[in-house]
Specification:
Blueprint: H1 31-39, H2 45-88, H3 92-101
Helix pairs in contact: 2-3
């Protein structure tokens, strides 16, 4: 049993906590009842479904953030390519602006 007062781990048959002496919840109940309670904790398919539905917004948020990050990276890729093309063509002002737009990408 776990004591919620002092966070001590106690044997299942204990009536009081070894750490603080506080009476444990469910103490005094027959051991057979505790075993039956532990066995009845099977997860039904309904609760699994509700757990999945509860996690769905988090999964969707992560997916949106990853897509946003990829779109940002693609934009920096395009700006870097424009900057290289402008530098090769001798348009240094345009190249400087494009390198500034590609900040954080490769050696921009």
């Amino acid at each position: 049993m776990f004591c919620t007062a002092c966070a001590a781990l106690n044997p299942r048959a204990a009536d009081a906590c070894r750490g603080c002496g506080r009476r444990l919840a469910g103490a005094g109940a027959p051991t057979a009842g505790r075993v039956a309670d532990a066995g009845s904790r099977t997860v039904s398919s309904g609760s699994r479904l509700s757990s999945l539905l509860a996690a769905a917004p988090l999964v969707a948020l992560v997916a949106v953030l990853l897509l946003f990050r990829e779109a940002e990276r693609a934009g920096r890729d395009r700006a870097y390519a424009r900057a290289e093309a402008a530098a090769a063509a001798g348009e240094y002002d345009a190249a400087l602006a494009a390198f500034a737009a590609a900040a954080g990408h490769r050696d921009a």
